[in-house]
Description:
Elements: H1 2-13, H2 23-48, E1 52-53, E2 61-62, H3 76-96, H4 99-122
Antiparallel strand pairs: 1-2
Helix pairs in contact: 1-3, 2-3, 2-4, 3-4
Amino acid sequence: xxxxxxxxxxxxxxxxxxxxxxxxxxxxxxxxxxxxxxxxxxxxxxxxxxxxxxxxxxxxxxxxxxxxxxxxxxxxxxxxxxxxxxxxxxxxxxxxxxxxxxxxxxxxxxxxxxxxxxxxxxxxxxxxx
Length: 129
């Protein structure tokens, strides 16, 4: 945890060297944050359920959270802390990166979140807080 905090502080302190923040950056960051909020709501909903099975006829079922950082049965507080921390970290990292890398980082992050959220929806996980 200490290494993460130090890395975040270094990123924040280096933000003076980052390129200007554009309206495109704001749009991508907002898209990521909205998708992450849906993922957060789905994760909270999954915690309340016991088993999720796919609707694709392959009988894929999950009894535990698949996020290795959260662990198989995270508490509500752990889920909330994780998503608040990752949301803040994503913004700070995006803000600190030069434009070329920022755009790539944001698009990759959006792609990952789209995949996670759509996967969760395919298993019937609702996005409810």
